[in-house]
Amino acid sequence: MSTKDYLEKDYYAVLGVPKTATADEIKKAYRKLARQYHPDANPGSSAASESTAKFKEVSEAYDILSDTKRRKEYDEARTLFGSGVGGYAGGAGAPRGGFPFDLGDLFGGTHQQQSGTGERIGDIFGGLFNRGGTTRAGGTTTRARRGQDIESEVTLSFGEAVEGATVSLRLTSSSACTACGGTGAKAGTTPRVCPTCDGTGAASRNLGNFAFSEPCRDCKGRGLLVDDPCPVCEGSGRGKSTRTIQARIPAGVGDGQRIKIKAKGAPGENGGPAGDLYVLIHVKPHPVFGRTGENLTITVPVTFTEAALGAEIKVPILKGLPVTLRIPEGTPNGRTFRVRGRGVARKDGTKGDLLATVEVLVPQQLEDKARGALEEFRDATAGGDPRAELIQQARGE
């Protein structure tokens, strides 16, 4: 089936359903018509021939409309061409009888079919489907090519990762060859337009009902062929360049995170945009602070008397003077306290918290006076065995 026939057929009318019909409505209509026009249900040579043709038409319509992707492509194509190829809504001057065409023209193909007005259909719609291209004399369009994405790595201190930093990155990427100016041809010579793709850099590929463009295999998408290549770049038109840029690393990045810096990759060709830069982040560990998501963590040592009697202690923060944290009496070892707004910066401008976990210190050596005081404390608090219940639970008693 040709593309013209495909677009002129109204599959909704064949099944007797509106364009807004649901998948269930389409299936119901198809089953009804399939039973009606099945050749086995219409014996006789004349009736069988007519029913077979109708059955094939109904099956073809259902095959398109029951597939979500193919239905969408069909609807979009018919919307683009009005009520079909012959009804192309071209405005004043459009040929009444329609025109022959290939959808490859619409997507930057190389077909030279002419319409009744002598215009290439690819030229009519070229601006729609070849955004960013540059036009040469004669109407051929050289496709703009986006530059390659490049990758780099950077190592930050713990504080730089939390607060953000501006770093210098030395990048090596492809760029236009300085010897030939990016043409790929030896000095004193010029490349010629690729005859396969007519200089567009793209060739048409038929995928059933539609033809899509892909890079030309002969010129590798450049649109040009080089007979006498540049000895420096060997005809590729590309060379290596090294540059240093200043990149802003946002606050709150984590170790192993990969961030994208837009348009800092390799430059494009034929006016195409530059690629992107992807930076892999490495963060050095901090001797005091750790990190859990948007919160910083710290372990704070306290004495036995501070934990038992309560105290106000100083806790360091990443930037600035220490903050005062009140420890209530009877604080157990390992309890975590939250200091609001002293953590990692979030995207909305707020900050996470500092999580301070107390660690009760047990003295390694005791003077006689301290030992005597502890022995008096032991005698004063003597009571039942604190592990008795634990032992009973372990025994299942």
UniProtKB/TrEMBL annotation:
<feature type="repeat" description="CXXCXGXG motif">
    <location>
        <begin position="177"/>
        <end position="184"/>
    </location>
</feature>
<feature type="repeat" description="CXXCXGXG motif">
    <location>
        <begin position="194"/>
        <end position="201"/>
    </location>
</feature>
<feature type="binding site">
    <location>
        <position position="230"/>
    </location>
    <ligand>
        <name>Zn(2+) 1</name>
    </ligand>
</feature>
<dbReference type="InterPro" id="IPR002939">
    <property type="entry name" value="DnaJ_C"/>
</dbReference>
<keyword id="KW-0143">Chaperone</keyword>
<feature type="zinc finger region" description="CR-type">
    <location>
        <begin position="164"/>
        <end position="242"/>
    </location>
</feature>
<feature type="binding site">
    <location>
        <position position="233"/>
    </location>
    <ligand>
        <name>Zn(2+) 1</name>
    </ligand>
</feature>
<feature type="binding site">
    <location>
        <position position="197"/>
    </location>
    <ligand>
        <name>Zn(2+) 2</name>
    </ligand>
</feature>
<keyword id="KW-0862">Zinc</keyword>
<keyword id="KW-0677">Repeat</keyword>
<dbReference type="GO" id="GO:0009408">
    <property type="term" value="P:response to heat"/>
</dbReference>
<comment type="similarity">
    <text>Belongs to the DnaJ family.</text>
</comment>
<dbReference type="GO" id="GO:0051082">
    <property type="term" value="F:unfolded protein binding"/>
</dbReference>
<dbReference type="GO" id="GO:0008270">
    <property type="term" value="F:zinc ion binding"/>
</dbReference>
<dbReference type="Pfam" id="PF01556">
    <property type="entry name" value="DnaJ_C"/>
</dbReference>
<protein>
    <recommendedName>
        <fullName>Chaperone protein DnaJ</fullName>
    </recommendedName>
</protein>
<dbReference type="InterPro" id="IPR008971">
    <property type="entry name" value="HSP40/DnaJ_pept-bd"/>
</dbReference>
<feature type="binding site">
    <location>
        <position position="219"/>
    </location>
    <ligand>
        <name>Zn(2+) 2</name>
    </ligand>
</feature>
<feature type="domain" description="CR-type">
    <location>
        <begin position="164"/>
        <end position="242"/>
    </location>
</feature>
<keyword id="KW-0479">Metal-binding</keyword>
<feature type="repeat" description="CXXCXGXG motif">
    <location>
        <begin position="230"/>
        <end position="237"/>
    </location>
</feature>
<dbReference type="GO" id="GO:0006260">
    <property type="term" value="P:DNA replication"/>
</dbReference>
<dbReference type="GO" id="GO:0005524">
    <property type="term" value="F:ATP binding"/>
</dbReference>
<keyword id="KW-0963">Cytoplasm</keyword>
<feature type="binding site">
    <location>
        <position position="194"/>
    </location>
    <ligand>
        <name>Zn(2+) 2</name>
    </ligand>
</feature>
<dbReference type="InterPro" id="IPR036410">
    <property type="entry name" value="HSP_DnaJ_Cys-rich_dom_sf"/>
</dbReference>
<dbReference type="InterPro" id="IPR012724">
    <property type="entry name" value="DnaJ"/>
</dbReference>
<dbReference type="InterPro" id="IPR018253">
    <property type="entry name" value="DnaJ_domain_CS"/>
</dbReference>
<dbReference type="InterPro" id="IPR001305">
    <property type="entry name" value="HSP_DnaJ_Cys-rich_dom"/>
</dbReference>
<dbReference type="InterPro" id="IPR001623">
    <property type="entry name" value="DnaJ_domain"/>
</dbReference>
<feature type="binding site">
    <location>
        <position position="216"/>
    </location>
    <ligand>
        <name>Zn(2+) 2</name>
    </ligand>
</feature>
<dbReference type="GO" id="GO:0042026">
    <property type="term" value="P:protein refolding"/>
</dbReference>
<dbReference type="GO" id="GO:0031072">
    <property type="term" value="F:heat shock protein binding"/>
</dbReference>
<feature type="domain" description="J">
    <location>
        <begin position="10"/>
        <end position="78"/>
    </location>
</feature>
<keyword id="KW-0346">Stress response</keyword>
<feature type="binding site">
    <location>
        <position position="177"/>
    </location>
    <ligand>
        <name>Zn(2+) 1</name>
    </ligand>
</feature>
<comment type="subunit">
    <text>Homodimer.</text>
</comment>
<dbReference type="InterPro" id="IPR036869">
    <property type="entry name" value="J_dom_sf"/>
</dbReference>
<dbReference type="GO" id="GO:0005737">
    <property type="term" value="C:cytoplasm"/>
</dbReference>
<feature type="repeat" description="CXXCXGXG motif">
    <location>
        <begin position="216"/>
        <end position="223"/>
    </location>
</feature>
<feature type="region of interest" description="Disordered">
    <location>
        <begin position="376"/>
        <end position="397"/>
    </location>
</feature>
<dbReference type="Pfam" id="PF00226">
    <property type="entry name" value="DnaJ"/>
</dbReference>
